[in-house]
Write a structure and sequence with these properties.
Elements: H1 3-15, H2 18-25, H3 29-43, E1 48-51, E2 54-57, H4 59-81, E3 90-96, H5 98-103, H6 105-115, E4 119-125, H7 128-137, E5 142-146, E6 158-165, H8 183-186, H9 199-209, E7 223-229
Parallel strand pairs: 3-4, 3-5
Antiparallel strand pairs: 1-2, 5-7, 6-7
Family: Belongs to the LysR transcriptional regulatory family.
Domain HTH lysR-type: 1-58
Protein name: LysR family transcriptional regulator
């Protein structure tokens, strides 16, 4: 049981909705569900009963709620009255893609939580294009995305690393039996790709149409995208 789980439980209990709590906390709904489930596992009880259109507290949830309120109030009081606190505080809003949110952000969030306890990170999952626009409008403070370009007007971009782009097929697929899969091979099969406008799809389309790289270039292990921050 940790403070984040208690905070999430408290907001779901107040709003009686996982969806509304996720929106208020700037979490993905799956994250809110996972935090409540983790709290239930830690306590060994069910805290919410799902209903059509919302949820309600179970008797165990009703008993926990006043304790959660007292604990969170004490935490706020301790923060406000701690002498000599230092470091950044407030909220840092980060716009990032769903892939980076799922696979790259968890250790970043853990690091910031321990290094800067007064700083709250709010994640805003979006497409790369939406993140660019949010940065220009000032609705997010930092953007993390994967793409080749770095010359975006009005944005200061720094490369943080590279992400591989690989072709994946079932073990029984004919491409899986080849020692090397080329872009020419990929043109002969149906490809499951992200939605139009997604950065990974743009790179894949450039490869398959010859817009950036010759048709003979190997797709397996041959493509990567810089991981950038703006």
């Amino acid at each position: 049981m940790d403070l984040r789980q208690l905070t999430t439980f408290h907001r779901v209990a107040a709003l009686l909705s996982f969806t509304r709590a996720a929106a208020e906390l700037n979490y993905a709904q799956s994250s809110v569900t996972a935090q409540v489930k983790g709290l239930e596992l830690a306590l060994g009880v069910q805290l919410f009963e799902r209903l059509r259109g919302g949820v309600r507290l179970t008797p165990a949830g009703e008993r926990l709620l006043p304790y959660a309120e007292r604990i969170l109030a004490l935490v706020d009081e301790a923060r406000e009255n701690t002498v000599g606190r230092s470091g950044p505080s407030g909220t840092l809003t980060v716009g990032t893609t769903e892939c980076l949110t799922s696979y790259r952000m968890p250790p970043v969030l853990e690091f910031f939580h321990h290094r800067y306890p007064e700083l709250r990170l709010a994640l805003r999952p979006a497409t790369t294009g939406e993140t660019h626009e949010a940065l220009r409008q000032g609705s997010v403070d930092v953007g993390l995305f994967t793409e080749v370009r770095s010359d975006h007007e009005g944005l200061c971009v720094e490369v943080l690393g590279r992400e591989p782009l690989v072709a994946v097929a079932s073990a029984g697929h004919r491409l899986a039996r080849l020692p090397e899969v080329t872009t020419e091979d990929l043109r002969t099969v149906q490809v499951l790709a992200p939605e139009p406008g997604a950065c990974y799809r743009t790179l894949l389309e450039e490869e398959l149409t010859g817009g950036r790289v010759g048709a003979g270039r190997a797709a397996r292990g041959g493509l990567s995208r810089p991981w950038r921050a703006a």
